[in-house]
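From the shared-data thread, chain only:
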Amino acid sequence: TEIYTLSLHDALPIYVSADGSSLLVEADDKGRQSLWSVQVPGGSIRHLVDAQVWNAAWSRDGKSLVYSTPDGEIFVSKSDGTGARRLYSSKHQEFTYVSGELVWSPDGSRIRFTRGDALWEMSANGDGLHELLPGWRPDAVKCCGSWTPDGRTFLFLVKDELSDPLLPGSQLWAVTEPRGMSWRAAGDPTQLAPGPIRW
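Structure, as tokens:
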């Protein structure tokens, strides 16, 4: 185990690159929150985004970066933070925050995230925004998804909304991905482990 001391204040790692060589780190830079890339090993750092970032992730091929801000916007840029453009804004909507991890599909064509109590999906260029599982367990919180490496299955957590937030309460579920180009998941979600468990 190696320990690195970063020259960043209040550094919070929020993502690891697919090859494990770099971290996305949110940190305080002279009183302003910003996003940095930290190379591991070595500890060299690079400034990426000069704004407070809620969540962020590199694409599987490492060429693109997606990140969300506290005011409910999602941006995509090159992996070094340049060329940023807004994909989504939830301003003036019922749920103005984007919570849960931003995740790229393994082929880089789609991005999923949690908004409110539901999982949402859009294309990598911001088109086709829709709820992933509309009408499925509407009283439960769905969040924190991730694809399996082959892209065939999407894993996510489900928590009963009225359960005590201080107690373990999340259940692990999976849904099979459709073949070909489709916005709808194939089949119903399947529970993978008996809950509640703190994942």
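The mean pLDDT is 81.
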